[in-house]
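User: Just a sanity check before I run the rest of the batch. Below are the structure tokens for the first item. I only need the designed sequence back.
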């Protein structure tokens, strides 16, 4: 079923949201966050992903990106496919205490697709085309303040898995293309 949030311009800049099915808090574990970070890095280096802002929360990721190769949908597909496989491998390795429950959730959602045993990510990407500077600034501020609103940190730049650190001139886990704007905290 269509949500209306589609990538219609493969060269465009988009605000995207990737959500784990049933809001499973997978990214509370470092091992899963590291997989997501490494996959973003791979896509940046090898697939032409241009990342402008991001935040990895406990069960979803918000980011602003575009494809320098004109294939944003392909990058998203590959990112979700690769990370799903890696996440499921962790569950198989029995190092995750929540493995039986998580496996049950992912298998339940997988049964609704032909030839699919598991589903880790929802199918939606909630893609919103960035249409101007004001909208871009609004979305970057939304991304950076997500951990503040969640009560995880008091300042956006204190959250390690966000580009707020990049914009504050601090070390960050991912490189981003900095957008020139006046950013603010909540």
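Assistant: Here's the designed sequence for the first item:
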């Amino acid at each position: 079923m269509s949500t209306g949030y589609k990538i219609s311009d493969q060269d465009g800049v988009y605000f995207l949201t990737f959500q784990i099915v049933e809001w499973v808090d997978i990214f509370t574990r470092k091992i899963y966050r590291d997989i997501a970070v490494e996959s973003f890095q791979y896509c940046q280096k090898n697939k032409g992903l241009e990342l402008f802002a991001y935040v990895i929360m406990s069960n979803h990721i918000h980011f602003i990106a575009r494809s320098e190769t004109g294939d944003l949908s392909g990058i998203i597909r590959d990112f979700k496919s690769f990370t799903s496989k890696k996440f499921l491998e962790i569950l198989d390795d029995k190092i995750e205490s929540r493995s039986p429950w998580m496996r049950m959730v992912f298998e339940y959602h997988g049964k609704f697709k032909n030839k699919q045993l598991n589903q880790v990510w929802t199918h939606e990407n909630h893609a919103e085309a960035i249409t101007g500077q004001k909208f871009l600034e609004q979305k970057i501020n939304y991304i950076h303040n997500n951990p503040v609103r969640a009560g995880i940190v008091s300042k956006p730049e204190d959250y390690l898995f966000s580009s707020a650190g990049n914009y504050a001139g601090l070390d960050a886990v991912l490189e981003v293309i900095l957008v020139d704007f006046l950013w603010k905290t909540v």
